[in-house]
Amino acid sequence: MKTIRILFALLGLLLVPGTSSIAQIPESELPPPGTDSGLDGKYDPENGIAQLIRDKSEEAAASKIFENEQVLVFMPLPEEEVVMPGHVLVVPKRLGARNLLDLKPDELREIMATVQKAAIAQRKGLGATGFRVSQNNGISSGQSVYHAHFHVVPYFGDGPLGTPAPRRKLAPEEYKSIAAKLRAAWPK
Description:
The chain is an alpha+beta fold. It has one domain: HIT family, subunit A (2-Layer Sandwich). Helices cover about 30% and strands about 15% of the residues. The chain has five helices and five strands; from the N terminus they run αααβββαββα. It has helices at about 1-15, 50-55, 60, 105-125, 170-185, and strands at about 65, 70-75, 90, 130-135, 150-155. The protein is globular, with a radius of gyration of 17 Å.
């Protein structure tokens, strides 16, 4: 419990805008390319998230919920199964950020503020009664795409606690409807 409190305190420091006591991580101290573990492996600029960041097509735009210079929020593509309708991913737009260890403090602050906005949009736009934020780092933790990303999964209070819903693909109209509701409810 003490460790959890310390982690939240550190995260709180990162999220305080304009905090000058937190030094930027020098490029020389970021993990070097090496093995394919996801922590030290070479970044693949053709991974699916990197491709979506660069993709300006109408099809890609349908999955994008929010975007600014630093972050992108998107729903898994229509052909992918989702944990729950309204599940989004929040990613840094900087290519080369493989995992949490590659994120700079300013990027992490922007990402966490965006994760919070995603949860607010899920609550306001979809009626979520709860949400889960998850983020994996390295192959041993289950990371399968080596571009840092945070999952924000809404929950709606249906079913026994701790019971995951079966993954499923969303019908095209349901997908469009959910995306529109999230965009409309996105905090300004």
